[in-house]
Amino acid sequence: MTTAGTPVVRILLADDHALVRRGVRLILDREADLQVVAEAGDGAEAVAVARGQDVDLAVLDITMPRMTGLQAARELGALKPDMRVLILTMHDNEQYFFQALRAGASGYVLKSVADRDLVTACRAAVRDEPFLYPGAVTALIRHYLDRVRHGEERPEQVLTPREEEVLKLVAEGHSSKEIAELLFISVKTVHRHRANLLHKLGLRDRLELTRYAIRAGLIEP
Prior knowledge:
By secondary structure, the chain is of the alpha/beta class. It has helices at about 20-30, 45-50, 70-80, 95-100, 115-125, 135-150, 160-170, 175-185, 185-200, 205-215; strands spanning about 1-5, 5, 10-15, 35-40, 55-60, 85-90, 105-110, 130. It has ten helices and eight strands. Helix 4 links the parallel strand 6 (about 85-90) and strand 7 (about 105-110). The relative contact order is 0.10. One of its GO terms (biological process) is regulation of DNA-templated transcription.
């Protein structure tokens, strides 16, 4: 589909709040070159939708049930390397910002200024150009200077993507059987991942795993 010869960017929008999706959709659909072709209520649904839909760009919230936007971004990058991803979030948070970059996101847009920045960010993403709000640029420069000053970067990530998935689901209160069904793995494998999590993080039980998941931004407190 094209408009006056301009290819239309097909967008997948994922946010667990229907009102937010509606507002964002209004911003995007009024542009001739942008069209929301699919919506999802969480990261897992976004990945499932992307498997069966022809989508150019995914716009993902960070904090969603079952699978966060950051986890979904990694999944989508592996599933469809040519698809671009934007993180649209209420969190003006350096930790989330750097995690988004590591997850393969092309940009990081704050919901508070979505009406100003989102359209520009979408167009930049499909041109394979990064989009960063001013505070993120400042954080990126400070991070780079800190790395130079200390001569090295902090270790990438303690947990593997699969361990992070299990941690999120454990913290959300799912049983081992439910986690196994959601991730298409055996209960025995879930138990192994949980044991690895406790060992790696130096924690003792589900409660401490839940506290860690809140600090890591995997679930809301």
